[in-house]
Fold these 4 entries.
Entry 1:
Amino acid sequence: MTHYLRSRHDAICVGVGTAIADDPGLNCRIAPEAAAAASTTNHVPMSAAVINPNTAATPAFDMTGQPRPIVIDPLLRWDFTSQSKVMQLARAGQGLAPYIITAVADPPVDKRSLLEGHGGKFIVVEPSGREKKEEEEGEEGRRHFEWRAILAAVRAEGLRSIMVEGGGAVINSLLSPGNTELIDEVIVTIAPTWLGQGGVVVSPPRKLLLPTPGEGKGEGQGGQEGARPGPAVRLTDTMWMPLGEDVVLCGRIAE
């Protein structure tokens, strides 16, 4: 299911935490012909990656339909190397090198050379100005991007559809109030497994519902008079599909 969905999009987006923890390949392992035969939806083919002939092997198969990896890495925490899985796949002609969204205006020369040599690039985006202090980040804090700025930067590269895969912080941010209108569809795979404490948690902020006429007033969360917490997100036009032991839920964001 994951690789079929990847074949239907121009890009796959993950956060820096996922890139560091999982060393993902972020490619599609389904042949373009098989993916096209599985759906009647039109797909805009991706152009082949620009592979440096001095560092890369001849592409092993048709690159049409390979999504472009997008990694959101504001402070360039991801210490990728030539042995990172996504780079190995790019050299083998089995995937594309990533575009890295960052707030660092002048990335390290060696990282830029490695990335561009595999057909990827850094894309500098201005942060929103919000900073969240976290113990593991020290005094440097963490910079945040506005999703509209990210999507505009990706759109400027000719990429028109993005599959946002994770991790939890990225999905929570996208499902937050003010961003849900940017989402076309949500797909959730439910497996019969509890990940346990420390697993990926998707729990976006709750909405604040203003009182209807006739309701009593009071001080709600966030300092808005009379506001009360409501569900963060609800799906509509839902469809449930059994897939082995898993169940896949598809739907659109309810207004």
Entry 2:
Amino acid sequence: MLNKISKIKYINSPLIKFRKVFLIIFLLAISIGIIFLFKDTLFVLFNKIPTVPDFTKEISLSNVQKIITSEPLIKKEDASESQLTAIGVFYWTNYYREKNGKAPLKQSVILNASATLKAKDMFAQQYFEHTSPTGEDAGYWVNKEGYEFIIIGENLALGNFQNDEALVNGWMASPGHKANILNPSYTEIGIAVIKATYQGKETWMAVQHFGRPLSDCSMPDETLKNRVIGYDAELNNLKNQLLELQKILKSKNKMTKEEYNKKVDQYNAILLEYNSIYDAVKVLADTYNEQVQQFNNCIK
């Protein structure tokens, strides 16, 4: 019977161990040498300087605000008896809105005040128009009362209407006034009805001020924008340093390898700082722009 031959065991001699260690050291030295020799190419990986994000989405309230009016309504024939109330006009206005599938309006103390100012001014200056002889329109009166708005509307009526229902019916029979009453963009209303002398005759003037306050839409956080603007000087300073170092590195004039590599280290350190700030700024800018987009969608 043949006996099994056992495996041959190799003995690690000191010479073999030395060769392994030498090979490892040799390969490591080559790697370091390659990095040292080609270190000047490293800055190429970082030579693209990102641009600070611009605020491409802006809001301008002067372009947002809308004022809607229609030819003032004049009742040519007086009723034998005439009595108007603001609460009655409010009731019948919402009656027709709900009848036509529109949300009812809320009473606004501020718009009540602006409508009252308008009515009193028309009697005081003896005019019956949306714009006064001195140039004040509906926007002037609501702004005077501190009403910040997205959209406002104004309906005017002059004459001795029998009652509140008859007055609102008169507006509803006029396409422009009806459109104001049923406008789905409005959320609030202010009303004034005043009886005084106009052109030598005792008569009623009625004013409706419709509105949607600016507070209905969340304004973008301006502190975000200000923080980005605050980073401008710092980023521009770093960018100028990077551009100057780029020129030096690309020229390679009168520099030893040690000097060159030192500049590369300096460049990469500054760029890492720049990119870190840039990333933070971009997050702030993106957040702000998203808020602007939401605001713009809200005011449409």
Entry 3:
Amino acid sequence: MKVTTRAAGNLVGVGLAGFMVWAVAVEAAMPSWFDPDDSCPGATGVERSYFPPSATCVHGDGRVVDHISRPETVVLAIVFVLLAAVVVTGLAVLGWRLLRHDQADLGKPKPKRPALHVLGAALLGVVAGAVARAAVILASLTAGPPGGATAFVAVALWAIGVASALDRAVGPGRGGSSGSYRRGTALVLAGATALLVLVVVTWDEYAEHNTLLGPAWAIAAGAGVFALLAAVQWIRWPVRRRSARTV
């Protein structure tokens, strides 16, 4: 199982790296955002599409000129599909591991320290939020929206790994190593979802001030959300057990 998991992780890593290279290539083929006249002389507008990758220069007399040729579009689309298959396959194997319940921890049992777990989760929320903001902006500037999305997924997977390691070290300790992976994944996915919802809801308040990195309170909110979710994981929910009748 370790080999399979390692191979799946390698697949995801190679796929994400390939996606970033693909995104850079697509963005380089697109008309310039800063000087459209240099890419489309005399055009009154530019139309872009990232999948399939295409760009056209629209002129005032109705002429439409392809900035990215059809063969380029076909090749880039095929590469995208292949990379998507690699990443999805790797994530599917990793997801299958999360559903397994037969992975027991080896060695001495780790001490359960709720305070350290909650504080560690809060710190992870701060660091992951800061890294994600910087990585997404830098990737978006160099590789467009696909690059920003790829950077976000990469940071999220890194955060899941850190959250799982934190859980194994000082977490609740239920469910063996697979339980740690499940709780780490739930912590990061739920925390990221909550923060994204907050940012989207308050988008109009800070977008008009051109703060491309998002609201300043997002990092502090990440600490609170991650800490709260980690604390919830220590709650033991009552489980109903069916009583067996003997005849």
Entry 4:
Amino acid sequence: MWPLLLGFVSVYFFLTSIYRLYLHPLSKIPGPKIAALTWGYEFYYDVVRHGTYIWEVEKMHDKYGFLDDKNFKNEVRQAVTEMSNLIHVSKFFPMLATMFKAMPRWLVAKLRPGATAVLDMQDLITERYNAQKDETKTYKMTIFDALTDPSVPPEERSSARLADEGMILMIGGTETTARVLSTAAFQLYQDEHLLESLRKELRPVMPTPTSNVSWSELEQLPLLNGLVNESLRLAFGSTIRSPRVAPTESLQYKGLVIPPGSPISMSPYFVLTDPEIFPEPESFRPERWIEAAQKGQNLNRYLVAFSRGSRNCLGMNLAYAELYMTIAAFVRRFDLEIFETTAESIRPGRDLGMAQPKEGKFAVRAKVTNVIKE
């Protein structure tokens, strides 16, 4: 019996391998054969090696040339960090999330202590929604009101759906913007010339540290605009590869045909660090955006931290407003001293949905050394 079963399994894997390597519609796409044979290749780097597959993909790009086309250029944080740590495992074992939700909370705490932060945050979102859903309102107050409108199908108005949506909104509205602000602070407060130049640019629109200024006014300031864009570029937003599918049409790329229904994905990291688009990509140079504008070059088309097209970030404009106004207010009011933080503290070394350093977690520490009075 066992020899027969072993023989059957061997034949199955042999035939499957032949199909994937030579007969599959994507078999002519260049790349390492082991990646075509099994998900285990990605699993090894993203799960065993903890989020390093993105750099294996970068090596593939260098070898196979996929990116050389010039035209293709508190609690919340604890919960976000834990979700990042689990993101690749959950991709390969999607039932884990359902299992964690079904387990008693004490058991989750023993098996994966950090996961309780995620569940607690979802419970809090559900609790707060339930506490206000019966209130009489004459107009829509929040996105949850829209999601629970009677026009939405009943199966899409469940508490579980709201908890998931709320978690996504919390992540998208906190950690990503916080990382950009942290990147800006780290670079700005270690470059005295850049800091003073920005303060000089801000003083005409903010005569005092507490002056009110609009986002539209701040957008017109070239150096601040360059600082925001460069901080976005090196904070990356989400580094995870977001699949896109052309359901009914074949795609052509360099003589290769990608059949309908094939998922295609890439990380924004590769565009934002492409040396042909951004020379010296690891250098923080806000002036590159000023220079590009002076030459009539639209460098913003390559700023994909919010993604692009119909699936780009819904909160993009809110994030921009927060970035411009927070940086301006902070720079005009405070002197900071960066401490216990180096470039390695924010340099991407792992892809956990958002870039993390090789060791520890992304963090910038600073002391307020002076409050500016005028």
